[in-house]
Amino acid sequence: MHRFAYKGRELYCEDVPVRKIAAEVGTPFYLYSIGTFLDHYTKLKEAFQEIDPLICFSMKANSNLTVLKALVNQGSGLDIVSGGELFRAKKVGVDPSKVVFASVGKTEAEIEEAIRARILMFNVESVQELETINAIACRMRMPQKIAIRLNPDVAPDTHHYITTGTKANKFGLDLETAYKLFMESYRYPFLRFSGVHIHIGSQITKSKPFILAVRKALQFIDSVRFAGNPVEYLNIGGGLGIIYSKEKPQTARQFAEAILPVLRSSATRRGLKLILEPGRFISGNSGILVTKVIYVKKGKEKAFVIADAAMNDLIRPSFYGAYHEIVPVTRSGRTRSVLADLVGPICESGDFLAKERQIPEVVSGDLLAVMSCGAYGYVMSSNYNSRPRIPEVVVRGSRYFQARRRETREDLVRNETIVREVV
Ligand code: LLP
After folding, report:
1. pTM
2. Confidence of residue 269 (pLDDT cuts 50, 70, 90)
3. How far is CA 7 from CA 4, 11, 18, 329, 333, in A?
4. Confidence grade of residue 134 (pLDDT, cut at 50, 70, 90)
5. How far is CA 267 from the centre of its chain?
6. Ligand 1, atom 19: nearest CA belongs to which residue?
7. CATH architecture of the domain with range 4-31+284-413
8. What are the extents of the domains in the chain?
9. Which class is domain 63-278?
């Protein structure tokens, strides 16, 4: 569910015609429905109401400050993966006791900064990292909660680039090593072994892999608790899939109905606090990318619709072969459709937003919406081909604002100097 819909011939974001925004800010741009972000957050919160989980929005999916602030105001915590994300988290004034920090490569500087910020916990992914956090916490005389990230060796049915919980992946610790660490927690006097973390992958549409992984995590918790280690938190990560095309993902309610019985039989009875780290579920369908057709090039076999947005703006189609629905911003009434690739101006054959699609016939100047771009859209964009990064516009009801302006040409070279000594 999202709040992008046609009223008559025009596509609206909440109560604003997309065309009106395009006329003001130019194309291409990202467009976010704040109401949709909040709807999704609330749906998840309500579905798990009986156990009152901590929802930490995974801000790697969308780290726009306005988006974060809206979610934080609603009570959301944040899942961060870098010092940069911590900086943003602080900027929006999140309650630090609702911040969790994952990443296989946290640097000493990042660890120190996060301890100083009094985040809730680190999700620890290696023995060396554990030692480093302990040493820094000791130096700072600030005991720190940690969760051990388990690699439960569960393979969800998703793109191999976004599978994270199998032995072949770099994430987390195998159960044996993790168990040993809990048993030796006395060796890390400045760490509180408070939680267990799992995250098995992204865009997972079925509940079965989650159930398997949660069961493994609960068994693990039982075993370390039995050995006398208090574990307070179970963080089941993110990964909930959304509709891009014809997927039939679980709803928040169905997900909760699948997971809650597993927890009820074990975790809640033992007073475990549940943490969720959804990124895509909250943000994916909350944003679109609006682009304008520059040229239409009719080849022998298919047409190329050349748009002003490209792989540097949205890399998911090129990188993962991801499908994003393409719809007209204004329905033209033209009845013919064409088989076409929607491509950008970048000098790469991999530069496409859609491949071999039957799309309504378009002409230069037409506006197109690339749907479901609220997650891993802007955040993965780049300046490739010296293309300035595009604006992010937010809508709430009948009002819209530029939450990030378009980069200028000067922005492109702002951090560079021509080194006279070498030229
Ligand atoms: N927690 C951890 C530890 C993660 O690594 C991730 C995502 C999440 C939570 C949030 O996962 P989500 O709920 O969004 O599925 N760029 C890829 C997705 C990469 C996901 C990385 N980790 C894409 O565009 O599909």
Report:
1. 0.97
2. low
3. 10, 6, 11, 11, 14
4. very high
5. 27
6. 162
7. Beta Barrel (2.40)
8. 4-31+284-413, 63-278
9. alpha beta
